[in-house]
Amino acid sequence: MTTPAPVPVPVPSPAPATLTHQQVSARLDEFTVVDVRTPGEYAGGHLPGAHNVPLDRLDEAADALRAVAARGPLLIVCASGARSAKGCVRLAGVGVEAATLEGGTGGWAAAGHPVERPAGARAPWAMDRQVRLAAGSLVVLGFGVGLARPSAHRLSGLIGAGLVFSGLTNTCGMAALLARLPYNRPPKDTVSFAETLRRLTA
What we know:
Strand content: 5-15%
Number of strands: 5
Distance between the termini: 61 Å
Structural class: alpha/beta
Shape: elongated
Helix content: 40-55%
């Protein structure tokens, strides 16, 4: 009788190093700061000297970020710290060590630290807030219309199922769609992704 092969147990990814805004502000010039928000969010205000590499393009920038991390500490930031923590885990999976900023850009600005933004740039809501508003509005719409047309309740069910899938897979299709809306797009004079990679490796 053969002994069944042991089932491999997945090893959870270690939590990324988290730095407070006090720790970062005291030595900001030592870090290469990478902001993983959408270009529109980034244009609305970012840490001084931060480079914009959206989370969905992080894999494309892995080689450049590996070179950066070899030269000195790499700090990943977003709006609140959720996306940057996810980005750090993804980078760790390809051998790139990085830390995340606790509280993100929102916490940094709330603590009175400076942010940079192009002249006249608007500050769109953080993407997670946009997703909550859109999802909640669609659920309420489905419920309200469903009072007259019961079949409309399916909309609320679909949105609920989408949120469950998003939580299980740690992805968000709605965020990807919202990022394409005009107010989430960067100004015309924004530095291109290719130029950002060039500056990171310069």
